[in-house]
């Protein structure tokens, strides 16, 4: 019998109601779980988080919260095999699962370690030094950071059902705010399993974590000015959330991380025999195939010097020919399906729009050979490589195929490449692959206003590089414009989203004892 997902609120598992939607295995089409259309009352869920979870967390110091996160990370690592097995049903290979599940758990550990080393054993965080405000030295001011009194609400995307939750939960927990998680429907069963294991650990204070496995009706209406709202997903949905009358009218702090048309630029100094040439091609293949290209940071536009366009095409096509597509649990498979048949169809439609300005060099959107799975029952796609020789053509800079799809764009000079990259309207990540430090510096200066993160990749740092698409917890994740205009992670900077900065004036002795 197909299980019906439950929500976690008031520290108990509760059933939803209404018609249930079947969530299908991405590779086989079999039902994995049923998602109720309505869940427990979101207003009551938020109220419990505020009344129980908030006070319990605020009673702990940063050091105590860090210790709990460390123990939670260890606890979840003991369940990795269980999580990985279920993750396969989302279409994830073990490599894909490492980015989502292993990466999410590692993020908890990173935040626990940084907080233990860098934050005081206190409940109030100082922000800057005390500023003298009087000549006699008896009056001054300083800023402090204190937890907001609401709940940290997160609305997540289907492609990272574990990492997306934990990377938001970790800084909110450290800051002293309880989290209310709205799981993405298509992969909610994996999020639910992880939350079950968290709840069973007994490590978290009462009310510190709630989970809504159902539709979002009523959630936004119940938000207060002391809550925060964090979203990962499409730019269109981010706009709807940002302009919601409650979010806008009550000035609820809102953070969005949206999909974007990320780029990689191969420097004009590179020749086919250079290590950077192979690094560029290999990285592009990785970004097209990890999670079947369903990453908000994946490379959608690959800018190459016009003189190298044919050589790059040949190298990338040869590598794509070695990609094995099929059931993600099969040992020989290097790329699984996208998350659903609907997502497969959406990618196919986007590819057709991209062909208005480009031509397909590799792959057939309508046909794919698979190993260990039926290509029609599963949401399988061939990797698709396109080429567009006109940097002014609109579709590569406007249309995102959220799957294993990328477009090669030849350029004449670095100025033209930088200008074309900016036409994406704001991106989460960009790569500069070159051995020329002067060219790299020029591109960093030109691209930084349009990007949240830039990777400069060459033969000297490739051995330790974490890659184009991996959002590291120590560095900011977000971007301007189309990428959502928000910012997550970035080490302990992330706590500031959940803390309220207040200026306090008084005697210097009193102010020094505040934090």
Rg, Å, rounded? 24 Å
Oligomer: single chain
Q: What is the beta-strand fraction? A: 15-25%
Which structural class should the secondary elements be placed in? alpha/beta
* N-end to C-end Cα span: 55 Å
Main sheet characteristics: 7 strands, mixed
- Total DSSP E strands: 21
Mean pLDDT: 95
Q: Would you identify the regions where 5 or more consecutive residues have pLDDT less than 50? A: none
Tally of helical runs: 14
The helix content, as a percent range, equals 25-40%
Which outline best applies? globular
Q: What order do the strands of the largest sheet run in, or round the barrel if closed?
A: 14-15-16-13-12-17-18
Question: Can you describe this structure?
Answer:
This protein is α/β, with parallel strands linked by helices and 515 residues long. The chain is 33% helix and 23% strand. The protein has 14 helices and 21 strands. A seven-stranded mixed sheet has the order 14-15-16-13-12-17-18, with helices on both faces. Strands 9-8-7-10-11 form a five-stranded parallel sheet, with helices on both faces. A three-stranded antiparallel sheet has the order 5-6-21. β19 and β20 form a beta hairpin. The N and C termini lie far apart (55 Å). 51% of the residues are buried. The model has no long low-confidence stretch (mean pLDDT 95).
């Amino acid at each position: 019998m197909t299980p019906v997902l439950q929500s976690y609120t008031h520290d108990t598992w509760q059933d939803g109601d209404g018609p249930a939607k079947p969530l299908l295995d991405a590779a086989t089409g079999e039902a994995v779980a049923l998602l109720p259309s309505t869940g427990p009352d979101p207003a009551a869920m938020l109220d419990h988080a505020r009344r129980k979870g908030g006070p319990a967390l605020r009673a702990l110091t940063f050091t105590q919260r860090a210790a709990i996160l460390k123990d939670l990370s260890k606890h979840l690592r003991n369940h990795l095999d269980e999580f990985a097995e279920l993750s396969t049903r989302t279409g994830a290979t073990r490599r894909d699962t490492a980015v989502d599940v292993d990466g999410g758990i590692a993020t908890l550990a990173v935040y626990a370690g940084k907080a233990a080393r860098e934050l005081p054993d206190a409940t109030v965080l100082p922000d800057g030094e005390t500023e003298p405000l009087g000549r006699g030295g008896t009056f001054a001011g300083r800023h402090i950071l204190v937890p907001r009194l609401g709940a940290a609400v997160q609305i997540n995307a289907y492609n990272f059902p574990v990492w997306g939750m934990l990377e938001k939960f970790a800084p909110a927990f450290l800051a002293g705010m309880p989290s209310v998680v709205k799981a993405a429907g298509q992969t909610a069963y994996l999020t639910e399993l992880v939350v079950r294991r968290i709840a069973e650990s007994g490590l978290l204070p009462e009310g510190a974590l709630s989970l809504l496995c159902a539709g979002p009706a009523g959630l936004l209406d119940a938000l207060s000015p002391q809550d925060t709202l964090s979203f990962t997903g499409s730019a269109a949905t981010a706009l709807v959330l940002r302009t919601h009358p409650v979010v806008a009218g009550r000035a609820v702090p809102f953070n969005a991380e949206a999909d974007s048309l990320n780029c990689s630029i191969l420097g004009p100094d590179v020749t086919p025999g250079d290590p950077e040439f192979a690094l560029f091609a290999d990285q592009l293949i990785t970004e097209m195939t990890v999670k079947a290209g369903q990453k908000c940071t994946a490379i959608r536009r690959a800018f190459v010097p016009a003189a190298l366009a044919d050589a790059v095409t040949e190298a990338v096509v040869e590598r794509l020919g070695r990609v094995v597509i099929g059931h993600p649990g099969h040992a020989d498979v290097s790329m699984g399906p996208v998350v659903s048949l609907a997502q497969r169809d959406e990618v196919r439609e986007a590819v057709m729009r991209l062909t208005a300005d480009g031509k397909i060099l590799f792959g057939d959107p309508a046909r794919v050979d698979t190993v260990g799975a039926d290509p029609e029952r599963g949401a399988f796609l061939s990797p698709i490589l396109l080429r567009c020789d006109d940097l002014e053509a609109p579709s590569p800079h406007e249309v995102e195929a959220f799957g294993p799809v990328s477009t090669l764009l030849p350029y004449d000079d670095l100025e033209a490449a930088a200008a074309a990259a900016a036409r994406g309207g704001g991106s989460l990540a960009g790569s500069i692959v070159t051995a020329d430090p002067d060219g790299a510096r020029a591109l960093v200066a030109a691209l930084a206003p349009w990007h949240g993160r830039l990777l400069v990749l060459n033969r000297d740092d490739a051995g330790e590089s974490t890659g184009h698409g991996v959002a590291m917890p120590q560095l900011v994740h977000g971007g301007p414009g189309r990428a959502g205009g928000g910012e997550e992670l970035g080490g302990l900077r992330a706590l500031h989203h959940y803390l309220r900065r207040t200026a306090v004036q008084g005697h210097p002795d009193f102010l020094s004892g505040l934090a």
